[in-house]
Amino acid sequence: MLNRSIRAFVASLIAPVLVAAGPAAGENTAPLVDYPARADMPMDWNDRKDFEFAARGFITNRDDPKIHDENGRVVFDMEEGAFLDGADPATVHPSLLRQARVLRKSGLFEVVDGVYQVRGFDITNVTFIRGDTGWIIIDTALTPATARAALELANEHLGPRPVRAVIYTHSHIDHSGGAAGVISQADVDAGKVKVIAPKGFLDATLDEFVVNGAATNRRTSYAGIGVERGPLGTVSSGLGDSAARGMWSLIAPITEIAETGERLTVDGVDLVFQVTPGTEAPAEMNIYLPQFRVLDMAENANVTLHNVLSPRGVEVRDAKFWADELTRSIRLFGDKSDAVILSHGWPRFGQGEVVDYLSKHRDAYKFLHDQTVRMMNEGLLPDEIANRFRLPDSLAKEWYNRGYYGSYSFNARAVYQRYLGWYQGNPVDLQPLEPADEARRYVDAMGGRDRAFALARNAASTRDDRWASELLNRLVMADSKDREARDLLADVYTRMALEQENGIWRAQYLSAAKELREGVGKGRLATLESLPALERLSTETLLEMQAVRLDPAKVGNSSAEIDFVIPERSERIRVNVRNQVLTYDSDPQGTAIDATVTLTRSQFVTLIARQELAAEAKVGGSREKVSEFADWFTAPSAAFPIVWRPDQDSD
């Protein structure tokens, strides 16, 4: 459906149908898309180093390009990127095309003797270290199916070995979600497998996917979920080839690394850690392998600029601290490393290359931070900084400093936000109108809907797409049922998508166009709530999740005080609802006013997640009050619109 819509739009660019209000049809023709000339970009297009690094050590690949889960569903298909192997598409930015082609190289690779990676089975690499008796695995990709496929390939061609340890470099689910594909919870509980992560890993993971999980999940869909891959669709995330589709798993770490310089020996392999909380993730660490002279930089260094603020919505990361930790990596390990491996993308080889790469990558983040703050202190506003920011050619020429995943424009605004917040000091923003109300007033001020649409159509026909999208966004916000405005905005977003060097921006524009044309559709992402892992969360974490779902309109002036007793965990926890706020006490005194509920852990999870009180639960006191309490919560929406306001949703 989406590609058909894009093809129609591409045809509209060739046949001059985007006609301005004034000129007659036929006067405005436009090329398909505009890309800068290669000579106008600072990179060396003859440099093949990345292709050579990405191919070095290749051993083999799967015979079947499709990876299936245990139910036979395809979770990853390497053939989706086959369009990259042919002639250059006219609808993909040449720089993004190059990046996608380097990332396309997949299979099992030897980094050095004893250190191997499976790349291209998911967005995240799976790294295998040969120990005395088994494998140490660093990062387990997004799904159990892709992690299992990686392990099977390694065992088939390197010799079967048991997994002795799994290490999570940081607290993003694409680095731990596949754990159940290579280890079992039973083996972890029995002490047969070590699970190692940076301090705070579990809390950071849960904070992102439980408390604000619905909003994050919905916004993550704009990374291209549901948009076909191809010359007219998504091309690459810019960070990895593509992400797997399927359920996640969550196996909690047993050992946490708290300090830089900590050392462990696991199955005969020495590990030295650099803890970097607050860089690319709230809990993250680099790993040095002295026996192999290999440095694993997690996502603190990448094959592209990363996000200081992810479009899916996270806490703003500290660009200065990020740069400082890269400096520390160089000081600690630079002269000791003959290869650097990453959680995404390909390695780099040679001690001099490692230091040069880390230094220039560090300088890009430091320049981003310093120059944003300089302009901020000169009184420039976030959008002004974003439009004026320019990385020096000495850094911009390095392919790994290009904005294929993160972007300097987005990141500059994030640096401003970290220091000064969303408020820009202008009191006009103290009491803003709601977007739909503001949009209607702007449309009226422009002379009404037809006049505003004529201005937008004229801007689109003259390729003034940023202004066209601004005008059309106002029209759609003012009236989500305006099909003509929605369709034209979708067309403009499509053209803007095809012109992007940034893979995520391309996906964002295409996802918005799809939503404008087809409606919101159904959610396509797994969530922690749909996993058995939900039962493994702490009672406090589950109640924090519940607290942000309390609906004041349902509570009204009511209150409740209920004790929940979970014998199998020796827990008694008191939940209070007062003043439309939920609080809890893990060590209550006396007896709860309204009720005491004794139930199993599974029944408690069902009550929290589904607002259902099991008939088997024992209730001392008022069962009616417990049922009333359960009805006070509203499950978050998994399918709210993004490009118009939900109270106008007609789809």
Give keywords.
single chain; 651 residues; six-stranded mixed beta sheet; 21 helices
Description:
36% of the residues lie in helices and 15% in strands. The chain has 651 residues and is α+β, with helices and mostly antiparallel strands. The protein folds into three domains: 2-32 and 432-499, Serine Threonine Protein Phosphatase 5, Tetratricopeptide repeat (Alpha Horseshoe), CATH 1.25.40.880; 38-416, Metallo-beta-lactamase, Chain A (4-Layer Sandwich); 531-630, Nonspecific Lipid-transfer Protein, Chain A, CATH 3.30.1050.10. An eight-stranded mixed sheet has the order 1-4-5-6-7-8-9-10, covered by helices on one side. Strands 11-12-13-14-15-16 form a six-stranded mixed sheet. Strands 19-18-17-20-21 form a five-stranded mixed sheet, with helices on one face. α6 (201-211) crosses α7 (213-220) and α8 (319-333) runs antiparallel to α9. The chain is globular, with a radius of gyration of 26 Å. Residues 9-31 have low confidence and may be disordered.
